[in-house]
Amino acid sequence: MRYFILAIGMMWTLIGAQVLHGFEIEARATFGPPTNDPNLRILSTADISYFEPMIASFLENNPDISIDYTVASSSQVMQAIAAEQAQFDLVISSAMDLQIKLANDGHALRHAPLRTVELPAWAHWNSMVFAFSQEPAAMVVSKAFLDQMGGTHTRQSLIGLIRKNPDKFRGRIGTYDIRRSGLGYLFATQDARGSETYWRLMEVMGQSDVQLYCCSSDMIGDVLSGKLDMAYNVLGSYAQRHPHADQVAIILPQDMTTVMLRSVLIPKTTQQPALAGLFLDHMLQRAFGTQTGAGRNLAGGPSLESSAINRIGLGPGLLVFLDRYKKQRFLSEWESAILQ
After folding, report:
1. What is the structure's pLDDT at 101?
2. Is 249 in the same domain as 172?
3. Residues 215 and 246 placed together within one structural domain of the fold
4. Are residues 33 and 104 in the same domain?
5. How far is CA 281 from the centre of its chain?
């Protein structure tokens, strides 16, 4: 990729986390012409490789703009913007509830998208938070293990399969540690709301020594390496984009598939509001413009027209499970089920 100038490795990350910011940085890259002072600063939960095509398409029409792209976990993104007032121009996150909280608490600017882009009602909230991709939570299973699963495409059938084969599954399933992952917590609360089998599944996984992770990419990597046979509730888009995606099967639960809307906002700390708006409009044009189709998944994703699709809605309803007492109670129940 000709626009990819520099990707800083682990050593930079450790130094940068300690010196430049209080929040923890996972990765950082710069795109466009080399400069000591990038024009646009983006803070995101999306991996560099995942978001790089969006940046490249923007730079095709804006080759003189340099972009600094910083990756952090959703909780660290929240800390950076809400607690540290870090100066970024765009904030991108998979944790929809935390994005709504940032906007609701006064940390986001309003933006009027281009008139040429017709946004569906579900894709924006209060002119501050905008969705640009739909991404389902999936079960990612190694092809080597797929035949043993049979037709396991629902939570109830997965429960039955694990109960019948406890030794085979012991330590071989991975899922989010929702105490560390904002997206994992969002998926868990939505599962609990929409599926009667969620808590039984967590108990069965806990009895089978489920492995806990911070990130979809780590879980998918361990499925591909053979350390895991299955990852539950991970981003199917990350699995699709993996160079060895042909070695895994991506299963969307037929009883209910939760769909996350990856979203973007312009923080009040921006030093480049006009440029931030230009990039945001580019994102929305690619997602909802007539040439690309409405609300597509950046990874090309499966059809999201099934009646079993549960698209999480952008709005203040997402704040319910961020209430301190509700969150403590939910995490306590989850720990009781998982940490056996």
Report:
1. 97
2. yes
3. yes
4. yes
5. 20
The CA radius of gyration of the chain, in Å to the nearest whole number, is 20
Whole-angstrom distance, CA of residue 114 vs CA of residue 283:
11
Cα 224 to Cα 230: distance, rounded to the nearest angstrom: 10
Q: CB–CB of 286/54 below 8 Å? A: yes
Residue labelled with tokens 């999306």: 46
**Domain with 202 in it:** 136-259+321-338
Look up the CATH number of the domain holding residue 216. 3.40.190.10
Is this prediction's pTM over 0.90? no
Amino acid 241: pLDDT: 84
Instruction: Please give the full DSSP string across 188-248, using - where no structure is assigned.
Output: HHHHHHH-TTHHHHHHHHHHTT-EEES-HHHHHHHHHHTS-SEEEEEEHHHHHHSTTGGGE
**Cα 43 off chain centre by:** 13
Tell me the average confidence (pLDDT) per consecutive run of 10 residues in the chain, 340 residues long.
Answer: 37 36 89 90 94 96 96 94 96 96 98 86 95 93 80 87 91 96 93 92 96 93 95 90 88 91 97 97 88 40 60 93 95 94
**Structurally, how many domains does the chain consist of?**
2
